[in-house]
Write a structure and sequence with these properties.
10 helices
Length: 253
């Protein structure tokens, strides 16, 4: 009960930061900077836990690193999720999401197993040398947190290098692989013209002439205020030239 209560501030901080700040921070600074900031906070929290003394206190030696870890997780997790899903096509979104979640679970389980094994091995080694149980256990946990700090720093360096390369090459147009049935549309690809907007004023004028020719055939008098019907296309040169783009393209279709 006491141990669970001691860990309670971390999930509360993660939930509050994710709901209140993560989305706005990523929208303002971008996922790249937010991810690196989160990894820095995680590295700092792990480093502080690796220096926890045997006779330390919760408020001074445990709670501050826990809050740093919570803030780092709240910043890094949404950012890395967005980066992982940003390159997936719509038809591959489910597969990419499942692969990301599986990698996260497997990686966390594997890391926890390795760190726990290191801590237990260190504790047993010190116990066999005659060390006190509390001191040996604290030393084992410090070793595990030091290794975790190294892993977090390595992740920070790897993310900074890989994502910087991706950002540098993101402005280049992507080439569609041969046989790809779903080519990606990049910002440099000009949009294709819509076929129903390709008419000219001469074509539109011809349609209007056809319409006014068909109206008397059905016993309906054409409107007298229509200047095109009253004076003909000769008084409206812009409606009869093929060089002038038509202003009623969308309406004529």
């Amino acid at each position: 009960m006491l141990t669970g209560t001691a860990f309670l501030p971390a999930p509360i901080a993660i939930g509050v930061l994710m709901l209140g700040l993560s989305a706005r921070t990523i929208a303002r600074f971008g996922p790249y900077r937010v991810l690196l900031s989160g990894l820095v906070l995680i590295s700092a929290g792990m480093a502080l836990l690796s220096r926890a003394p045997v006779d330390g206190t919760y408020l001074a030696d445990v709670l501050p690193p826990l809050l740093l870890l919570a803030a780092g997780f709240a910043a890094a997790m949404p950012a890395v999720t967005g980066l992982a899903m940003s390159g997936a096509r719509a038809e591959d979104a489910g597969l990419a999401s499942g692969l990301f979640n599986t990698t996260q679970v497997v990686g966390g389980s594997l890391g926890l197993a390795v760190l726990t094994t290191l801590a237990a091995s260190r504790t047993d080694h010190l116990r066999h040398g005659g060390a006190d149980l509390v001191a040996a256990t604290a030393s084992g946990y410090r070793l595990a947190f030091m290794v975790a700090t190294g892993i977090a720093v390595a992740a920070l360096v790897l993310a900074a290098g890989v994502l910087r390369t991706e950002r540098a090459t993101s402005g280049q147009p992507r080439r569609t692989p041969p046989g790809d049935p779903h080519p990606r549309v990049t910002a440099r690809t000009p949009p294709a013209p819509l076929p129903h907007l390709a008419g000219t004023c001469a074509q539109t004028a011809a349609q209007r002439v056809s319409l006014h020719t068909a109206i008397p055939a059905h016993g309906v008098t054409a409107p007298a205020h229509d200047p095109f019907h009253a004076h003909g296309p000769a008084h409206h040169p812009h409606r009869g030239t093929r060089e002038t783009p038509c202003r009623w393209r969308a309406a004529s279709s």
